[in-house]
Amino acid sequence: MTAETSETAEVQDEQDRSGKEGVGWSRRRRGKISCAVVLALACAAVPSEVIAAQKPKKDSAAAGKKASAVAPAEPAGPPAEISPAPSEAPAAEPAASPPLAMPPSAPHDLHASWDDRLVIEARNKQFFLQPIVILQTLFTLPVNRAADVYFEGTGFTFRRGALGFDARLLGFARVFFLSNIASGSLALWDFFADLDPFEGKLVLRAGRFRPWLARQRLLAGDRYQMIQLPVAMTDLLEMGDGRDLGAGLFGLLMDKKVEYNLGIWNGEHGIWSTGDPPMYKVEPSTDMLPRSGLRARGNIDFVYGLRLVGHPFGYLPALDESDLSYSETLRLSLGTAVLYEKRHDQYIPEPGGYTRVDDRVLKVGLELHFRLRGFSLEAEVFMRQAWLQDGASTLALDAFRNYNMGALAWSAYVQGGYFLLPRVVELTARFDYVDVEPKTPGYILRPALGLNWFLHGYNILLQIMYRANAGIGFESDMGFYRSLRPLDRNDNSFGTRPIARLTHDLFLMLQLSL
How far apart are CA 75 and CA 81, in angstroms? Predict the structure, then answer.
């Protein structure tokens, strides 16, 4: 029975008992009905517990005397206002509904923030996504008296054009993807997964990534201090895009003061032609390690690598070079790395053509990085040694010796920077040395100067770089050419055009990174 029905029955009983009709009863009836309607409206606006507490108590002794008034019971919560009858006072507004409380944020809710790059992250840290966009527009102006085609060309190009993402799941899994679109087509750079169940002490990585040799080659693509990489690293170590398919373990020990990296990579192309023995695809290096033809896998001579680094004053990752954060305390890292590989069907010139040899190559690097209050210094030394594999023919041995393919090659660079205006303008310099064949006269020097203008950190960066290219002490153009381009030093058909022993390059680059 509703409140209004109950009130109507009560009024009918009151009429029968009193036997009275007319204006007095009619006024009381209207008051009762009006009060019932207001009470029903009030019940709809308040919680059911309050409604139950506000139901009027029936007082039969006073019903005939005060039929037009309703006395509510003591409520459990704050009392609700009841409007009087129209004959007694103006109607009051019904009580307002209490404001609805907003539910607390769920732990998996996503929020976006900006920290050098856009970051989308769950509040419980179980999901992390960072899109990567890098666009570097480069202008090159060479000064070459001999108009030599073996140096940089004039004009605009893309230094890097990269798209990718860095995603982390459940706090211990990571997926990293980076592709290069600078050439007009999509080229895969990095694509790997990390599993980190031990909080950085032991991390498993599998996919396509950079072998752990040469600190500068491990940096983020938009964090280089100078526009061009040192040839001490790129030429001597035979680096192209510097990635290969493989797997590795790495981590930090002793309160992040010791870093280790241990890896294995494919390091070989597929079969180029069948026969006895088969020939393998080992074209002039376009990668640091030859890419793998998985559908025509012909060789299982893997590449092995090891890198150990000490961080005596706290972890200094191989991420950037400039001291943009303006370190207030000394930061230092010292390390060494080794890479060992077997290669097949290397071309070596011989009278009337070429011969192919199988060799083994050992690459060793020493690294140092230092930074303090806007000043940074980086230095690396590299050694490269090759040997013929067992069973090489006499012809192969003679060609290998004649072209010094087994020479113990050395290279090194020292690079530094200092912020003239903290976090805004940085002056940079580098000295680059390469001696591909130490037993023969001549070596390469490439000193360079640069200026960086950080308009908005690494997000908007304007760089300028001057570099000299000097061949010192060579007895012939052939000797200079073979050291100038060590990746192609088995090519003896450079023509009769003279090669300038001193050239200059000017580079200007605008970087946008999101």
Answer: 11
Point out the domain boundary residue: 69, 99, 129: 99
492 band by pLDDT with thresholds 50, 70 and 90: low
Backbone angles phi, psi at 294, to 5 degrees: -65, -30
DSSP 394-417: HHHHHHHHHTTTT--EEEEEEEEE
Closest among 236, 238, 245, 233 to 283, alpha carbons compared: 238
Asked whether residue 434 falls in the same domain as residue 486, the answer is yes
Helix 23-45, helix 3-18: angle, nearest 10: 160
Residue that is written with structure tokens 């000490």 in the block: 310
Whether residue 128 sits in one domain with residue 65: no
- The C-alpha atoms of residue 155 and residue 108 are separated, in whole angstroms, by 49
AA letter at 454: F
Last residue of a domain, one of 80, 99, 118: 99
pLDDT of residue 307 exceeding 80: yes
- Average pLDDT of the segment spanning 345-351: 67
CA angle 295–386–468, rounded 5-degree value: 100
